[in-house]
Amino acid sequence: MKGMLNLKDILVLGIESSCDETSVAVVKNGREVLSNIIDTQIKIHEQFGGVVPEIASRNHIEAISKVTKLALEKAKVTLKDIDVIAPTYGPGLVGALLVGVSYGRGLAFALNKPLVGVNHLEGHISANYITYPDLKPPFLCMLTSGGNTQIVHVKDYCDMEVIGKTRDDAIGEAFDKVARVIGLTYPGGPKIDKLAQQGKATIEFPKTHFENLDFSFSGIKTAVLNYLHKNPEVSKPDLCMSFEKAVTEVLTENVTKAIKQTKLDKVVLAGGVSANTHIREEFQKLGKELNIKIYEPDLKLCTDNAAMIASAGYYRYINGDLSENTLNAVPNLKIGE
Ligand code: KG4
């Protein structure tokens, strides 16, 4: 269903349940966050060393009504004031996604409001529209999250192309795996970040390079695990910093190539791993070196939240991309589909 819509103030109710955060937000005109309630299940999954899908789904079901009520209260609005219902429909865990999708479908049907299914990855990119009210496409996005590592050419709000991607592990998986073997609990990324700040990059880990803009992180991950096995007394902070240095160099090398290819002068970071201190510092240095602007989302918008979903939902809505009330979860949804 395409067509111009009347551009008055538009309030979007974003719903996020793709993994282990149940989140509901109210966002005005894609940029102004009126509320963003996040109920995280990290403590529940920590004891298992990772997210247990069935437990995640059950907890989303318990949390979603309460989180929605809080989001509306905090925004000082009622369901009647909401213009669009925008749940994440992929990628993610199927049972977890189905909770948000079904809840969103139910609300849209009962209230007779438009439903807009949102791609979670577009949500991560859109976190930057909230942090930087003047940011507009086109730009390059370095998307680094728990499940994805991609360079995305964002040509317009609803027109994007993946120009480089990981051939094996996502960068967040590598962080979490390295953390686990050095005894840090899930999610390991933020804990590696902290430890690395007290360390030095004393170890050189091998990196895999490709002709095109693709990535590989499994080699670095395995090299770290082997090094630890052979040198159990190694300084953990130094190990973490050396690991971060290796993965960051892989990111900055490919982004440099992508800038040359596309001639774009804006690079936007997105996804949970973009909260990383070393990665942020190195991208700022790269920006100065190449005279381009680097955008980093607000730390609290890097990891999963519904405000970023509502922002992406807004741009899909004004583009006329409405979903049918048969919207289903798509666990392996890609950008550009
Ligand atoms: O984007 P996200 O919340 O989930 C997905 O949509 O995939 O990303 C979660 C990932 C986890 O792997 C977590 O360890 C990592 O982001 N992460 C970090 C940091 N904060 C979260 N990795 C490195 N440094 C951080 N500060």
Largest sheet: spatial strand order = 3-2-1-4-5
Would you count the extended β strands for me?
A: 10
Assign a percent range to the helix content.
40-55%
Helical element count?
10
Helices and strands in order:
Layout: E1 11-16, E2 21-28, E3 32-40, H1 42-46, H2 53-75, E4 84-90, H3 94-111, E5 118-119, H4 120-131, E6 139-144, E7 149-156, E8 159-165, H5 171-181, H6 189-196, H7 218-230, H8 236-262, E9 266-270, H9 277-290, E10 293-295, H10 306-318
Parallel strand pairs: 1-4, 4-5, 6-9, 9-10
Antiparallel strand pairs: 1-2, 2-3, 6-7, 7-8
Helix pairs in contact: 2-3, 4-10, 5-7, 6-8, 7-8, 8-9
Bound molecules: 5'-O-[(R)-(carboxyoxy)(hydroxy)phosphoryl]adenosine.
5'-O-[(R)-(carboxyoxy)(hydroxy)phosphoryl]adenosine binds next to α5 and α6.
What brief labels describe this structure?
337 residues, alpha/beta, Nucleotidyltransferase, domain 5, 2 domains, five-stranded mixed beta sheet, 43% helix, binds 5'-O-[(R)-(carboxyoxy)(hydroxy)phosphoryl]adenosine
Question: What can you tell me about this protein's structure?
Answer:
The chain is an alpha/beta fold and 337 residues long. The protein folds into 2 domains: 2-125 and 302-318, Nucleotidyltransferase, domain 5 (2-Layer Sandwich), CATH 3.30.420; 137-299, ATPase, nucleotide binding domain (Nucleotidyltransferase, domain 5, 2-Layer Sandwich), CATH 3.30.420. It is 43% helix and 18% strand. The chain has 10 helices and 10 strands. Strands 3-2-1-4-5 form a 5-stranded mixed sheet, sandwiched between helices. A 5-stranded mixed sheet has the order 8-7-6-9-10, sandwiched between helices. Helix 5 (171-181) packs parallel to helix 7 and helix 7 packs antiparallel against helix 8. The protein is globular, with a radius of gyration of 20 Å. The two termini are 16 Å apart. The model has no long low-confidence stretch (mean pLDDT 95). It binds 5'-O-[(R)-(carboxyoxy)(hydroxy)phosphoryl]adenosine. 5'-O-[(R)-(carboxyoxy)(hydroxy)phosphoryl]adenosine binds next to helix 5 and helix 6.
